[in-house]
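Entry 0007
Protein: ABC transporter ATP-binding protein
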Amino acid sequence: MARRQWRTLAGGMFFGIVWMSAQAVMPAVIGHAIDDGVAAKDREQLVEWAAVLFGIGLVQAVAGIMRHRFAVTNWLIAAYRVVQLVTRQATRLGGTLPRKVSTGEVVAIGTNDLSHIGQVMDVSARFAGAVVSFVVVSAILLQTSVTLGLVVLVGVPLLMLGVAPLLGPLQRRSAHQRHLMGRLSNTASDIVGGLRVLRGIGGEQVFLDRYRRESQTTRGAGVQVAKLQSVLDALQVFLPGLFVVVVVWIGARYAVEGTITPGELVAFYGYSAFLMIPLRTATEFANKVIRARVAATRIVHVLSLEPEVTVPAEIAPSPAAGSDLVDTRTGLQVRAGLLTAIVSEQPDDSAELADRLGMAASPVDDEVRLCGVPLTSLDPTEVRERIVVSDTGAMFFSGRLGDNLDLTGHGDVERALDTASAADVLEALTDGLDTVVAERGRSFSGGQRQRLVLARALAIDPEILVLVEPTSAVDAHTEARIAARLRGHREGRTTVVTSTSPLMLDAADAVAFLDSGRIVAVGTHEDLLATDPAYRRVVTRESEPELAVSEASR
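Output (structure tokens):
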């Protein structure tokens, strides 16, 4: 990352060096002004040195402004480059990301980690200036007094070594706090995302107590970090202050002995006071590097993840349009151009099968085939274009409703809304398709959101459309309209629906009954009701005694 922005980093370091070096030579100029001008009562010398001091002040002011501009630029470039990298990686990983990294972890990267990375780039300019100015001051002192020069050259590194023992524990505590912050953010995301469900079951207090406990644990970890941080901050003031006292005491003795002039004594005091800046900058740099290393570890972990679906080394030829889709593991065969329904007593089993049909399940295998070609042998982009899986977890992003519904830019949104029986939702909106959708589409009810999600999937109009429980949140009348219209809307196109609703199953061309991971029966809804008791029990939700009575009556 630093290599990508080396120009702005170099610019910041250059002006940081100029800015701090200008401050470093000011005590020498003041000392000469005192000795050559004030003590010698030479007005011309005093004016000359005052002019030099004024010029250095101007250089310092200009360099300080430019240093700050470069520092802010470096912070912004680094922080938003992290956002770009993580966003691109999230897009690249697709469905792999939520299975390997929690939502809270990604949120923590976007709220805290990028700031720590940016702060290192920010402080780099001042740190470069601190190193160079330290060398400049040491050289000046060595020319004036070897003893004072050695005190600076030896004392400053010793002071830094005094801070070093704190850095290791600070890094460990910061890493622990960062881990807890990710967990806390994940808990908060879960609560916000499921708030409506929590209210429905009366679970708000349970999750509130859970959040409070995790929050207090995170707070405790933050306090432990703050304890070390406070000691480090105190040492940033105490150690340089102690150093100033030592240098001034030695300089004062030399002045009393007549070894140095009053102007040189003032200069020594100025050097000592100035050296507090490089020392504090160095400890600040070490502190921010530690926090950035913890943040970088988390970021690199996300960036190192590989998608479960990758482009094969040798891409197989594209299967012909209108080919059958087969899953050899379960025995499911989806005939091209038909509406096929999958029924299972366990909704999770049918949902998992639906994900596998679109290579959205984990792990990805080569048992799903299109015209005999494993999906894993095809380009993932082609698979995504030809097979679209719309599950119950699909959501809307913030933005214009029309953009959320028409993802391809040329879909027949009006017809899709009519098929999904969602025209009334659009009519109730003042701005129609220009309505701004709230985050996750929370401004819509569960049934409205489900119908809009179905309309979005229909507007894409893929070759094969897989719908997971598309009518589970709507009333029977709306479901009947959707079931009646869906078959005509997708005529000539392959459609797969997972559902146990008799209304939806009756509209299907073929129904596949999934039991214990295998397709155990295939036929029309009417035929399976008549011939398969297990299927009838799942669809009609009859108990075993009721089923026995029903069989006896037949």
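Curator remark: The chain has 19 helices and twelve strands. The longest helix spans residues 204-257.
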